[in-house]
Amino acid sequence: MIAGAVTPFSTTRFLLRLLLGALVVIVLARVFVLETFRIAANSMSPELAVGDRILVVKTSYGLRLPFARAESVRWSAPARGDVIAFRLPTDESREYVKRVIAVPGDTIEIHGIDVWVNGDKLPRRPIDNPESVIRITGRTDFDGVLFREDNGGASYWVEYTSPDASVFRRNVAMQRVPDDAFYVMGDNRDNSDDSRSFGPVARTQVDGSVRRLW
């Protein structure tokens, strides 16, 4: 045999090693860096609709120990207006996606469609012509009334079934967000299971920030 010649056996072994290496990289990336999900409910309408594919960036706020909820390194924290993926506090086998409304140390209070953070009502203006929303989201099937809400330098759309204050809503008495926890709400305010029902989300339950893919 000529020195350096490639045999079928060595080629197969090389391809197997290459495939195994690629598989290891994919698994590590999914555990530590990125993961994709498909939206299954309309609680984040109008920005995220049922069927939208999202990317969860697990390194947005820190680096988590393998197969553990604790972080080994932290370099930032979720801010007001961020959309995050997290484990449901009452059932960590379930993954939820919501928007951060208040951060550790903030006070929050909710009356009807008015949300108060640190004693200030979040500014909200109606969207009379939703063409800009349609252009960005590609959606036209809005179920309610659209508003643009401002919070901590972030601006985003929220949707209410009706702006009528007489509609039953979950009012929340003033409370302080605990240290290392976040108060989250869905953008579809009248159709969202969020911190109004299950309370603040601990940082250890946060998996990362969310990006819409398609």
The percent range for strand residues is 35-45%
Q: How many E-type strands?
A: 16
- End-to-end span in angstroms? 54 Å
CA-atom Rg in angstroms: 22 Å
Helix content percent band: 10-25%
Question: Could you give me the name of the CATH homologous superfamily?
Answer: Umud Fragment, subunit A
Q: CATH topology, what is it called?
A: Umud Fragment, subunit A
What structural class should be given to the helix and strand makeup?
alpha+beta
The CATH architecture term is Ribbon
Q: Let me know the largest β-sheet.
A: 7 strands, antiparallel
Structural topology:
Blueprint: H1 8-32, E1 34-38, E2 53-57, E3 62-64, E4 71-74, E5 83-88, E6 91-102, E7 107-111, E8 114-117, E9 120-121, E10 124-126, H2 131-137, E11 145-151, E12 154-160, E13 172-176, E14 181-185, H3 195-198, E15 201-202, E16 206-212
Structure description:
A seven-stranded antiparallel beta sheet has the order 1-2-16-5-6-14-15. The protein has a four-stranded antiparallel beta sheet with strand order 9-8-7-13, with no helix packed on it. It starts with 7 loop residues before the first helix and ends with a strand. β8 (114-117) and β9 (120-121) form a beta hairpin. It is an alpha+beta fold and 214 residues long. The chain is globular and about 80 Å long. The chain has one domain: Umud Fragment, subunit A (Ribbon), CATH 2.10.109.10. Helices cover 17% and strands 38% of the residues.
Q: Descriptors for this entry?
A:
214 residues, alpha+beta, Umud Fragment, subunit A, seven-stranded antiparallel beta sheet, four-stranded antiparallel beta sheet, 16 strands
